[in-house]
Amino acid sequence: MFNYIFGLFSNDMGIDLGTASVLVYIKGKNIVLREPSVVAMERDSKRVLSIGIEAKKMLGKTPANIVAVRPLRNGVIADFEATEKMIRYFIKKVHNKRTLLHPRVVIGVPSGITEVERRAVRESAEQAGAREVYLIDEPMAAAIGAGIPIQDPEGSMIVDIGGGTTEVAVISLGGMVVAKSLEVAGDKMDEAIVQYFRRKYNLSIGENTAESVKVKIGSVFPLDQELTMDVKGRDLLTGLPKTVSISSEEVRIALSDPVRKIIEVVKSVLEETPAELSADLVDRGIILSGGGSLVKGLPELISQETELPVNLADDPLTCVARGTGAYLEELDNIKRSKKRNI
After folding, report:
1. In contact, 58 and 43? CB cutoff 8 Å
2. Exposure winner among 8, 103, 197, 336, fewest CB in 10 A?
3. What is the SS3 assignment for 281?
4. How big, in percent rounded to 5, are the helix, strand and coil portions of the chain?
């Protein structure tokens, strides 16, 4: 009865707690928030100054007494205190700052994290005010959010390329038959672009600039018309501001190493997939989700390497969040089913 009354006054939520961004799904309302997972705080006192969009603007630009950090790295918590404050902030924000509400929360987590890391995610959400916390593996959440019929007896393959991790899974009958998690994704692509500028142009650029290059002209497959853009940074030789022009062909070279590793893990999962499910994939192909999947030419390159059809999910950025939301909507039915099976 107590939980029922609580449920009347709290908005249960699904959270895609990503390395690059946080998306929040509210039960009955769809996705209501999408902000960068960045926290800006005073270096000594640890007092939070800003979270989300405003904090991301500070990356690489803060004075000595302020630090802007990403509390999650490679899909797991790197700074427990900052993560807890970030989750608390987002819970209050979507609830219009009402502090008496304690929602049930479903959080998507990488499939490869340890039990200790899972416990850290659960505890950070509980400390932030969640009444109950449920975890769902990101590839499963992404598959649900992408509209893949996960309960079918046929095999389906999802490749979710986020900020910190790439999640690859073959799913059948509501479970992951083969799944692998790789700590190479969007952030590693940004790092590769930063290093390329340092090596070729002796130019130091920040991660926001590298991300902008990736989004605007990044490609991993030859384009019909190659793109160019001007990039500003600091000359490592003179220490002075400098502008260089870079092409999508150069970005393709910069991205070759992280993209090769992603393709290798996709092939590795395919190699471990049972023959009957492999046969299903010839027709069903591979579905891509996550922000990293939006790099130009990635579906074409993976299709060429695997000889399978590859398609982008509808709105790849929100697949995991929509999957946590779908799980949330079915949570009461799932709990009743588990009780019947005990």
Report:
1. no
2. 8
3. helix
4. 45, 25, 30
- 120-157 pLDDT, tens digit per residue, is 999 999 998 898 999 999 999 999 999 999 999 999 99
Q: Which of 100-114, 160-174, 199-213 has the lowest mean pLDDT?
A: 100-114
pLDDT computed for residue 336 by the predictor: 56
Indicate left, alpha or beta for 297 from its phi (over 0: left) and psi (-120 to 50: alpha).
Answer: left
Token pair, residue 239, equals 């220490």
- H-only helix segments in 273-318: 275-284, 298-306
User: What distance in Å separates the CA atoms of residue 192 and residue 323, rounded to the nearest whole number?
Assistant: 30
DSSP state string for 193-255:
HHHHHHHHH-EE--HHHHHHHHHHH-BSS--SS--EEEEEEEETTT-SEEEEEEEHHHHHHHH
Band of residue 330 on the pLDDT scale cut at 50, 70, 90: confident
Strands, DSSP E only, in the chain? 13-17, 21-26, 30-36, 39-42, 48-51, 66-69, 72-73, 76-77, 104-109, 132-137, 156-161, 166-172, 175-182, 203-204, 228-235, 241-247, 286-289, 310-312
Q: What is the pLDDT of residues 260-313, one digit of tens each?
A: 999 999 999 999 999 999 999 999 999 999 999 999 999 999 999 999 999 999
228 Cβ contact list (under 8 Å, min separation 6)? 217, 245, 246, 247, 248
Q: With 70 as the cut, is the pLDDT of residue 3 above it?
A: no
Q: Compute the distance between CA of residue 299 and CA of residue 123 in angstroms, rounded to an integer.
A: 37
Instruction: Give the count of alpha carbons within 13 A of 4, CB side only.
Output: 1
Decide: 147 and 130 in contact? Cβ < 8 Å.
no
CB 135 within 8 A of CB 122: yes
Residue 28 falls in which region: left (phi positive, over 0), alpha (psi -120 to 50) or beta: left
